[in-house]
Write a structure and sequence with these properties.
By secondary structure, the chain is an alpha+beta fold. The protein contains 4 helices and 7 strands; from the N terminus they run ααβββββββαα. Bound molecules: zinc ion. Zinc ion binds next to helix 3.
């Protein structure tokens, strides 16, 4: 997921990330409407070094993009792993492996963006509060009560694990227009 605003920060971070790019593993992010984004992710059977390496690479990819959340689905790994960091300082990484929503309440509507749909921001209605249970990088179970933007981020990323991209909440007409817009933009970029 990406933040809708704050361009100066974004530009500044891009410059920093270029310097760091050579020593980091930046994964390729699938771009909507890539069919692979609709793959249903499988549960992680055992949290091990391979999982931790994936988490590390996903976090680096998210910070470099820059974004505030990334699901393994977006880097073409179809396992239930998401990373989220909504802090301005990039030191509050949250890792959710095999996340499950235990409880939701309230309703909130806000503009969302996605690293798989760059430059597109649309309003989506979500639960305002979620209680989520997941495994951390050490395979330990934890439960988190999240609200507001963090809750939105978790829901957005968990949707990816179910093969759903946020623009699929829009009307069919809007989705058709969006696909045409992205197609045109890619043609122009060639
Ligand atoms: Zn996304």
């Amino acid at each position: 997921m990406t933040k809708a605003h704050g361009l100066p920060w974004r530009v500044k971070f891009c410059i920093q990330s270029i310097k760091l790019a050579s020593i980091m593993a930046i994964l390729q992010i699938l771009q909507y409407p890539d069919e692979r984004l609709h793959t249903i992710a499988k549960k992680v059977v055992q949290v091990n070094d391979v999982t931790r390496k994936l988490v590390k690479n996903m976090a680096q990819t998210m910070y470099a993009a820059p974004g505030v959340g990334l699901a393994a689905t977006q880097v073409d790994v179809h396992e239930q792993v998401i990373v989220v960091d909504i802090s301005e300082t990039h030191n509050e990484l949250r890792v959710f492996i095999n996340p499950e929503i235990l409880c939701i309440s309230g309703e909130i509507e806000g503009e969302e963006g996605c690293l798989s749909v760059p430059g597109i921001y649309e309003n989506v209605r979500r639960a305002e509060k979620v209680t989520v249970r997941a495994l951390d990088q050490n395979g330990e179970t934890f439960t988190l009560e999240a609200e507001g933007f963090l809750a939105v981020c978790i829901q957005h990323e968990m949707d990816h694990l179910r093969g759903k991209v946020f623009v699929e909440y829009l009307s069919q007409l809007k989705q058709t227009r969006l696909r045409a817009k992205l197609k045109k933009r890619r043609r122009e970029a060639l």
